[in-house]
From TrEMBL:
Function: Binds directly to 23S rRNA. The L1 stalk is quite mobile in the ribosome, and is involved in E site tRNA release. Protein L1 is also a translational repressor protein, it controls the translation of the L11 operon by binding to its mRNA.
A GO molecular function held by the record: structural constituent of ribosome
Taxonomic path: Bacteria, Bacillati, Cyanobacteriota, Cyanophyceae, Oculatellales
UniProt-listed PROSITE patterns: RIBOSOMAL_L1
Pfam families: Ribosomal_L1 (PF00687)
Protein name according to UniProt: Large ribosomal subunit protein uL1
Keywords linked to the UniProt accession: Repressor, Ribonucleoprotein, Ribosomal protein, RNA-binding, rRNA-binding, Translation regulation, tRNA-binding
InterPro entries hit by this protein: Ribosom_uL1_bac-type, Ribosomal_uL1, Ribosomal_uL1-like, Ribosomal_uL1/biogenesis, Ribosomal_uL1_3-a/b-sand, Ribosomal_uL1_CS
Complex formation: Part of the 50S ribosomal subunit.
Any single biological process term in GO: translation
Natural source organism: Thermoleptolyngbya sichuanensis A183
The family this protein is said to belong to: Belongs to the universal ribosomal protein uL1 family.
Length: 238
């Protein structure tokens, strides 16, 4: 069944030319096409030259967005003993031990990030069915398995995001709000690009970057000139 495209989206698509846009130009157009009746996010969709079915071609890491996400991030922590109190004092929205694990098993998912201390990971592992499909399973690579709870909570609330390439080798990341200025969106997008380059999987062969598109949540896709973005210095974006 072919999904019907709304008149609003057709009109917005007509504004987008079939060509790669300079990064700042693309982000200005993203803002122009964010016309939904709710605050839209700015999203990046990046196709990489990797095959994640091989362990040496998987990408899973975190990015610290200098201008934040524009969202209130709810952080939950699973720990033991004094670490539960430490997490609460550090600003965790939820903190607990076995009782929090039980609540999550029953379907409670009132959080955006789940952090766990290494000693409770054997118990957290049984939450794979609930957390896995949502990308919320704590992992050392994602910075969400740690004893340094205060730092982790601060970073994720300030704009640190975990992301991974899906099974097709595509990275989908929210990198701010459409209400941000084009300059602030560019600073966040540059940080994302540098993070992806810095974490290039060892098994990636040939051309690493294939395509990058940005879009508002309900807006059309806009191709970004990857070479122009990579050639920019972070200081240029700032």
């Amino acid at each position: 069944m072919v999904k019907k495209v709304s008149k609003r989206l057709r009109e917005l698509q007509a504004k987008v030319e079939d060509r790669p846009y300079a990064p700042l130009e693309a982000l200005a157009l993203l803002k122009e096409t964010a016309t939904a009746k709710f605050p839209e996010s700015a999203e990046a969709h990046i196709r990489l030259g990797i095959d994640p079915k091989y362990t040496d071609q998987q990408l899973r890491t975190t990015v610290a967005l200098p201008k934040g996400t524009g969202q209130v991030v709810r952080v939950a922590v699973i720990a033991r003993g004094e670490k539960v109190t430490e997490a609460t004092n550090a600003g965790a929205d939820l903190a607990g031990s076995e009782e929090l694990i039980d609540e999550i098993q029953k379907g409670m998912m009132d959080f955006d990030v789940l952090i766990a201390t290494p000693d409770v990971m054997p118990q957290v592992a049984k939450l794979g069915r609930q957390l896995g499909p949502r990308g919320l399973m704590p992992s050392p690579k994602g910075g969400t398995v740690t004893f340094d709870l205060a730092q982790a909570i601060d970073e994720f609330k300030a704009g640190k995001l975990e992301f991974r390439a899906d099974k097709s080798g595509i990275v989908h990341v929210m990198f701010g709000k459409a209400s941000f200025s084009p300059d602030d969106l560019l600073i966040n997008l540059k940080a994302l690009q540098e993070t992806i380059d810095r974490n290039r999987p060892s098994g990636a062969k040939g051309r690493y970057w294939r395509t990058m598109y940005v879009a508002a949540t309900m807006g059309p896709s806009i191709e970004v000139d990857i070479a122009a973005l990579r050639d920019m210095k972070a200081s240029d974006a700032a």
